[in-house]
Amino acid sequence: MVLEAIKYSRGELDILDQLQLPHTEVYDEVKSAQDAWHAIKEMRTRGAPAIAIVAALGLAVELELIAGKNELSNIAEEVELFIKEKLEYLVTSRPTAVNLADAARKLQKIVQDAAKAQNASGTSVKDAYVKAAEQMLVDDVSDNKAIGEHGADWILKNAAGGKDQVSILTHCNTGSLATAGYGTALGVIRSVHARGSLKRAFCSETRPYNQGSRLTAFELVHDKIPATLVTDSMAAALLRLKGPTENIAAIVVGADRVAANGDTANKIGTYSLAILAKHHGVKFLVAAPRTTIDLETKSGADIVIEERAGKEMTMIKGPCVKGASLDLKQIETVSIAANGIDVWNPAFDVTPAELIDGVVTEKGVVEKGSDGVFHFEDIFAASGSEVKPTTVGGL
Ligand code: MRU
Question: What does the record give under GO molecular function (predicted)?
């Protein structure tokens, strides 16, 4: 069964509550932009593409519900303004991932154009918005599958060292739970596995929020992909091993924002992994759709890094262990740090472009050009129908 974190049909949106994973699968109803904002802020839904899609669809559901009650204005400009204000509000939920701001900008443009059209009405503006938001859900899955294939091609060509099978390390959660489906970095692992070329996936725990041990491990077990969990602090020791299984060919991570120069904001701990990869001669790839690449942000220095509550580090929550089983009715929060200690809890870090070997997009893998710099313009110039190159720009 395919893991579905976002269940949508027109007028209805349910999201898998990721705070309750991996032990309990509960869906929350999202009926409005406000519901979506809270789901994102509280991290019941998370991951750059999923954040954008849940926000866009949450507002789509609200518009449908209002229209269903005959409460939608029939004045195009009024609906346009309503949508604009809701999008501006949604963008305030989390600052680092650019996908939401990118989606909001595109949706706003569609709504503006719809409001200017001849015979525009409140309903036609609403319909244009809903259709475009729904298309984002569809496009994200197909983009992720293309990312998976391009990433698999690249790794097997550039990192396998002549072996039939490779082991890959990933960080945080970038799979079906973080996207509309399939995933970005985890999508690459899925594609390598589907070809019979994956020896083993390694996922890092991803402290402090444990997206690796709770969510990526959950997806890997769900899909029966051979996988091993390591703590973040074990990565260096793992990269040193050159055995038949513990021999990492590549580290593949997702992204929350890739700046125009290739500097990449992603889950805290990504930067350390990139440094380790460089030291050990292991390829380091960022997998992300073009909606994560932000040409307006010149470099990593311009990326706002979200800081989260200290209690995410000092406390941990989960079901009680009773003998060999879990008591899912008894969820406890326990303290794991000294009372009174100051806490710094940045949710993301920035990996400099110099440590990144390639950015895997739905249009192909972008490598640095002969000038040592990433050039993303080509993948934005390409239209959907063009042949998708596996490598864009590389040497
Ligand atoms: O704080 P999170 O869980 O939303 O952070 C998620 C990540 O950092 C992911 O790696 C990134 O959003 C890419 S998801 C395809």
Answer: S-methyl-5-thioribose-1-phosphate isomerase activity
